[in-house]
Design a protein that fits this description.
Layout lengths: L2 H52 L3 H11 L8 H21 L3 H23 L4 H13 L1
Helix pairs in contact: 3-4
C-alpha cells in the first residue's frame, strides 16, 4: 500500500464522517438545550425548597413562588415585524449589490412578511392597556 492509497482511504472516511456530523449535529444541539433547561429548572426548584425551609411566614413563601413563576410575555408583533422587515430589506439589498436574483425574491418575501406582522401588531393589541382602549372604543360605537 502506497501513500496515495492511504490518503484516499482517509479522505473517504473523512467525507463519510462529515456527513454523519452534519446530520447528527442538530439533534445534538437540541439535546444539549433540553439538558441545560431541565438542569436550570431543577436548580431553581431546589433553591426554592432550601429558602422555604428557612421562612416561617406562609405569605412570604407564596410571594416567593409567585416571583419565580415563569411569566409569558405577549408577542409584540410590531417589534418582530420591524426586525423581519429590515432583515428582508437587507437580504434584498444584498441580492441587488451582488447580482443574486433569487436572493432579491427571498428578501422581498421576508420584507412582506415583516410588513404583515407590523399590520397585525396594530390590528391585534396585546397589552392590557391597548385591550382596554380597544374595548372602550368598541363600546362607544
Amino acid at each position: 500500500m502506497n501513500m496515495v492509497e492511504v490518503a484516499e482511504g482517509m479522505l473517504g472516511m473523512f467525507a463519510i464522517g462529515v456527513g454523519y456530523v452534519a446530520i447528527l449535529l442538530p439533534a445534538l444541539i437540541v439535546l444539549i438545550v433540553f439538558f441545560y433547561r431541565n438542569k436550570d429548572k431543577k436548580n431553581r426548584y431546589e433553591a426554592v425548597v432550601a429558602v422555604s425551609k428557612n421562612i416561617e411566614d406562609q405569605s412570604e413563601i407564596k410571594e416567593l413562588l409567585y416571583d419565580l413563576k415563569e411569566k409569558k410575555q405577549p408577542i409584540d408583533y410590531r417589534r418582530t415585524g420591524v426586525i423581519t422587515l429590515f432583515t428582508g430589506v437587507g437580504l434584498f439589498l444584498f441580492g441587488v449589490f451582488f447580482l443574486l436574483g433569487s436572493l432579491k425574491g427571498v428578501g422581498a418575501l421576508v420584507a412582506a412578511i415583516g410588513v404583515g406582522q407590523i399590520i397585525a401588531g396594530y390590528l391585534y393589541p396585546n397589552t392590557s392597556e391597548e385591550l382596554t382602549n380597544a374595548v372602550e372604543n368598541y363600546e362607544k360605537k
